[in-house]
Amino acid sequence: MKKYPIIKNISKFLFFLPTLYFLNTKEAHAPNTEYNLNADTRKIVVIDPGHGMGNRVEGWMDWGKTYLEYKEAEIVLEKAKKIKNMLDSTKYKVILTRKDNTTPCPIESRPELANKIKADIFLSLHLNDFKNWKSISGSEIYWRYEKDKDLAKLAAKNINEIANIPNRYVSWGEYLMLKEVSCPAALVEIGYFLNEQDINKILKTNGVEKAIVKTIEDYLK
Ligand SMILES: [Zn+2]
Questions:
Q1: Range of the domain at 21
Q2: Rounded distance from Cα 189 to ligand 1 centre (Å)
Q3: Is residue 35, in this structure, part of any structural domain at all?
Q4: Following DSSP, what letter does each residue of 51-86 receive, concatenated?
Q5: 76 CA → ligand 1 middle, Å
Q6: Residue 128 C-alpha to ligand 1 middle, in angstroms?
Q7: What's 167's domain CATH number?
Q8: pTM (predicted TM-score)
Q9: Each residue of 159-203: pLDDT tens digit?
Q10: Cα(126)–Cα(21) distance, rounded to whole angstroms?
């Protein structure tokens, strides 16, 4: 072996490769768990601000829908932070799947996080659009399993009554962020991004935050 140090090094490297792969895979899917949940007996709410860094492709920022200066990923992150502020001082512990637009947050890590911390409720927040049609308005709420249905209906009702955004429908959807989440979970398309009435209600009032807070309180009480 002394004569062939390269071969020796290569074999060492090959031996190390699976370990590298394992570490890398583990890292990529590791949910954000910087919370001491053992000491906290409150019910756990996971809010997922849709899209974000590395959502679908590693190293690539997914802004979701964009229009003029508006970016879906930014707007839903702001909404999620406000919801957290409104609920955190109460009997609920709110965990966000992502806190900024720079930390990687792969889509699979979101349901993983909810399950890992034994969430009581999971809501993924989004904004909608359809082929640049500005006339379409309203929320759309998606559920994936029967256990999610009541939560989805409640979100639709509250967004209608409190945020004044009518519901287009509550429907089944095979969304990845809802896949195998143990607790009740729903994907909330709050309203239509290009619709002036919807976007004004979303951006210029806090009706959406109040509606989501009410949904969580109603569901978990
Ligand atoms: Zn979205």
A1: 1-30
A2: 7
A3: no
A4: SEETSSSTT-EE--SEETTEEHHHHHHHHHHHHHHH
A5: 9
A6: 6
A7: 3.40.630.40
A8: 0.83
A9: 999 999 999 999 999 999 999 999 999 999 999 989 999 999 999
A10: 33
